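Technical annex B. To support the medicinal chemistry partners, we prepared a structural model of the target in complex with iron/sulfur cluster, based solely on the information shown next.
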Amino acid sequence: MAFDPSSLDQLILLLGQVTLVILAGLLVLGLVLAILIAFSIRTGRMVFPRLFLAGMALVEGVIRALCGLLGIEDRELTEFMIRLHNRLNQAKFDSIPAKNKAIFLPQCLRSAKCPAHLTPEGLICQRCMQCGIGRSIDQLEGQGYRVHIVPGSTFIKRIVRAEKPKAIIGVGCLMEVKEGIMLADRLGLVAMGVITLKDGCIETLVNWTDLIDLASGGKEDLEVRPSVSAAE
Ligand code: SF4
């Protein structure tokens, strides 16, 4: 059979047109999602959360670039995605009994004068009341949670392997929470993230009211805006 060069040209042209249409579609999708995300962040109203997650999986780079053009900083977008993840996990998280759930607090939340000693399960709080952990841990444990104060992710992995919780709440700085949620997703755990109000390695802060509300399932809709008020 004779080869027809014009057919090949037509095929290449068609492929080029299809590629252009797909790229244009992804760009439009990215633009629409970037506008919706900017709207959600600025107004505190989260619209179409599942669409955001699907869109981020498809065109995260495009959305991040367009959000940047719309004045949304990378940090704001990451915080938004963590809150979105919490929102989508909330019902599943609430359906799991507290005895099957663990809370991981970073050791940087404690006072610089903390008398607690490190054990394989993390730090054991002495309830000296020099930090918010001592003032809140009994309330969280009273709900049935196992609460661990840990120096890092190595402890979390070991404790998860040993205790096999079905769901966890992880508290930490933005990147710790982001990476912790990704790890928990890979391990098949239902994870909720709470971002600390102040970064750093010593005497950081968390909004304890938000954390207790999340743990008790009393606050169905975590707000889109970042936490700003210390509950200490
Ligand atoms: S309340 Fe607990 S965690 Fe906080 S400083 Fe005292 S012993 Fe350490």
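Notes passed to the chemistry partners:
Residues 5-72 form one domain.
Residues 110-111, 114-116, 125-131, 133-134 surround iron/sulfur cluster (CB under 6 Å).
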